[in-house]
Fold this sequence. Notes:
The complex is a heterodimer of chains A (244) and B (344).
Chain A: E1 4-13, E2 16-26, E3 31-35, H1 42-50, E4 57-62, E5 65-66, H2 72-78, E6 80-83, H3 95-103, H4 109-113, H5 117-131, H6 147-159, E7 165-169, H7 177-187, E8 195-199, H8 203-209, E9 212-217, E10 220-226, H9 227-232, H10 234-242
Parallel strand pairs in A: 3-8, 3-9, 6-7, 7-8
Antiparallel strand pairs in A: 1-2, 1-4, 4-5, 9-10
Chain B: H1 11-15, H2 20-38, H3 43-69, H4 76-94, H5 99-121, H6 130-149, E1 160-161, E2 166-168, E3 171-173, H7 177-198, H8 201-219, H9 223-249, E4 251-252, H10 259-272, H11 278-295, H12 304-318, H13 330-334
Antiparallel strand pairs in B: 1-4, 2-3
Amino acid sequence: MALLQVSGVTKTYGPLKALDGVDLEVEAGSFHGLIGPNGSGKSTLLKAIAGAHFPTTGRILFDGGDITTMPPYQRARRGLSLKFQITSVLTELSVYDNVLLALQATEGYGALFRSRSRARLDGEVMAALERFRLAGRADDLAGELSHGEQQWLEIAMALAPRPKLLLLDEPTGGMSPEERRVTGELLAPIRRHCALVIVEHDLDFIKNICDRLTMLDQGRVLGTGSVAEIEGDARVQEIYTRRV
Amino acid sequence: MTATTGAAPPVAARRGAFRILPAIELAVLALLLVVPFLLADRPELITLLTNVVILSLLALSFDLCWGFSGIMSFGQALFFGVAGYGVALVGRDLEFSQLWATLPLAMLAGGALAALLAAFLLLGRKAPTSIFVAFGTLTGAYAAERLVAGWQYVGAGNGLSAIKLMAFGEYEFVEGLDFYAVALTALVLVYAASRTLVRSQLGLVLAGIRQNEERLAFFGYRVQVFKAVVFSLAGMVAGLSGALYGYHQGFTGPSNLGPGLSTTAVIYCLFGGSGTLIGPVLGTVAIEVLSYVLADIDAIRQFWPVLLGVVLLVVVTFQPTGLLGLAVSARERIGTYGARKAAR
C-alpha cells in the first residue's frame, strides 16, 4: 500500500474549483514532483495533504490511516511535515531554537517547563544544522540569515523530527542557481528514511531529484508517471510550451 | 551562499555582552524593598505603593497573555474582579478571611474562570483570530460588569464595602507596611515563577506561537491548548491581584471587573514594555505615580487626565516596545530559553 493515497479530492471556493477529483499515490522513499502552470492547484493540493485546509470531497490516507479531516498537529505527529511556500522560519528566535522547536513538539508540559529537552536534543539539533550547513549560525537570529539560508533552515526544521513524508512548496524560490544545486544535493540523502512531495517551478531541478511527476492543470490531474513519461506526454508539452 | 553572511555581531561578542534586563529587575526589586521604609511617615504613599504592587500583578497577567503568548485579552479584570467579589462574599457570609486559604482560592477562582472562557474562545474546532479573542474577552468583562451592577446579592451598583480584613491567624492586615509586605511577597513569587516559565523550553514554545502559531501547529504542537494553559495561569495571577486589591481597598464594585480596568492593565503593560515581565511593573509604577503627582498640582488639577492620556498615546504610538525598549535591545528582550549549554 502506498504511503500517501489521495482519492478523488475536490476543493471548492464558492464557484471556483481549485481541485477537481485529484488522485495521487506516493510510495515510501520516493520523490514525487507536482508540476503545472500557475493556478493549477499544486499548492492547494499540498495544503490539503498537510491539513492547512480540508477537502470539500474525497479522501486522504496516510500511512494506513484516514487523515482527511485531521488537524495539522495530528498529521505532524503521524510523520507528515511541511515546508511552506512563503518562508516561515521564526525570525525572532535563534537558528538553534527554530530547529529545537521542531524537535520537541511531542514533549510533555512538565518536561518543557523543566527545560529537559534542550540538553537531550542538542546532538540532533546540531546534526540537523550541520546537514544544512548552518551549524556556524546556530546562535544567530533566524531573521539575520539570507533568504536562501532561511529556506535551508526551514527544510532542516521540517526534516528534524524525521518525518515519513515531507511536503515542500517551492523550496528553491528566490535561490541562485548555485543554491538550487546545493539544495538538490542536500535533499538527495533523505530518501533513505523519507518520501517527498515537492511543488517547484524549476523543471530542471524537479526532474533531477524526482522519480515520478504528476502534472496538474486547472485543478485536474493531467498525467502521472516517470519523469521520462511525463516529459514525453504531448498534453504536458502543449501546456508547458504555451502557458508556463 | 556563504555560511557567515549578514551584519550580525559575532556570537562570542554577544555572549559576553552586558545584559541590562537583570540589572533593571534587581534595581526595581531594591527600590520596592527600600522605598517603603523611606516613606514610613507618609502612610498615603505606602497605600499608593501597595496599590501599585497589587496592580502590577494584574499588568503581569496581561503580559503573560499578550507579551508572551499572543493572546489579546481585554478581560483580565474579569478574573481580578471575580476574585475580589469572592473574598468579599466569603468575608461577609462566612466571616472568613484567612489569607492562607482565601488567596489560593482566589487564584483558583480566577484560573477556573479563565479556563472556562478559554474553552469557549480558544478550544473550538477552528483556531480563533486575535480579534475574536479580543472581542470575546472584552464582551465577557462587559457582561460581568453589567451582571453585578444589577445583582442585589453582590451589592448591585454600590458594590460590596467594608470587606473583612485579611488575616493570618489572629493577626489582621490593615493598610500599611505589613500589607505592603504581603503584596510585595506575592509579586516577587509570581514574578519569579513567571520568569522561570517564560525562560524555559515552554517559554520557547510560547515565543514560537506568538510569532507564527500556524508554523507551530505544523510541527505537531497543540497550539490552542498551550494558549489556554497560559490564559488560565494568567487568570490565576489576576485573581490573586483582585483578592489583594479587594482586601486592601476594603471595597469592590462593578468597575473592578469591567473593560475599563482591563484596558488599564493593557496600558500598564504597553507603556512599560510588553513581553519583558518587568516592563508591566515599570508601566504600572510610572502611570500610577504620574497620576498621583499630576493630580496634586493645582495648575493642572482640572485637566491632568488629558495630559496623562497624551503622554500614554505618544509612548504607545511612537515607542511600541514601551519605556523598556529605550534601554533594552531587541535581542535581549527576545532572550534565551532553557539552560544555556557551554557551547552556546
